[in-house]
Amino acid sequence: MCRRKPRPKLRQLPERWPRYTEPMSILNFAAGRPGLNIRPAFHAIVTGAFATWVSVAIGAPEIALSPAQIRALGVATVAATASTGETLTAPAEVSVAPEQLEVISAPLAARVEAVMVAVGDVVSRGRPLVRLNGPQALDLARETQTAEAALTLARQSAQRDRQLLQSGLIAKSRAEASDAALAQAESRARSAQRQQQLQGVQGEQSVQSLSSRSGGVVLEVLAAPGSRVGPGDPLLRLARTDALWLDIRLPAAQAGQVGVGSTVTVAGRTVNAQVTQIGQAVLPGTQSLLVRARVSAGGSSLRLGELVEARVRVASTADGVSVPSRGVWRDAGQTWAFVQTAPGRYRTVHIDVLSDDGSSVATRSLKAGDLVVVQGIAALKSLRAGT
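Request: output the structure for the sequence above.
Response:
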């Protein structure tokens, strides 16, 4: 017959080790042992984690922290505010209205002698921009000179015939014919002078100096010194920047939420604008609509052709609140936030996002005044994960 081996006796713990009848006895013992250097902040964090484990173990759905633990973890909250409206974010380009554009073109066939401006220059009205040199300019000057000479002769002839008419030496019809010839000569001279002025021809020379009628910013230089141009060839493109626009590319599915007069801002700029026009045709390829907004303030911080991020405010969300974007976080495709339910107690709340403009989130999952955690989220998530 085999004899059973006797069971080994259980080792008895010495009396100096505490009996852990309370959840916090381990930490209390460790914190009070001589020679152990547990810093208060570390003790607060570990204590909080253990307390959270115990509270969840008995079914409590919240994270409970003491004031010392809140300070150690850096937890801070912000109150949710009533939403004043949703924000749609879309790319936009800074532009001007078509009537603010000006194209400087060559009036005659010529050679570009000099370009006196560069892209980005701000020019005033009447400032010389391009100088051309060509034989047609000289021909135009000669035509003007011929017309002025004919005017002088016609004026002298008409004056002489008036004197002869007063002396009774000529018939009245002859004096009237001289006056008619003078009127025609004056018309031809004015036309030639006006044409010479429009073409930028100065005096009896082949050089033409072209200038802007209204001034503005040089957008594009299309001519180079030494090149030959024909009548109507564009040389420069300018634009007045006293009124700027935002050409916003808004997805067609969201365009129905925007109306004329909607407020528009620009990310990172102090710019205000109002929607003045909403396109009716969807742009091919992008399935977006062109929404145009006129800049009313802050236009000095924008540049023509610049691509910016436009934020369009739309109708208010009923019963919705706004919370800072830094107060929400995502996990497994869902959006969450920590909400303070009482001093030192925090609950995880699922957030149904209505809109997100990058700085704030609109939602109906909370009510105005709810305290949302915006600092110390990582620490609370760690405590939550430890449960």
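The chain has four domains: 76-86+318-375, 88-97+243-313, 102-133+207-239, 135-205.
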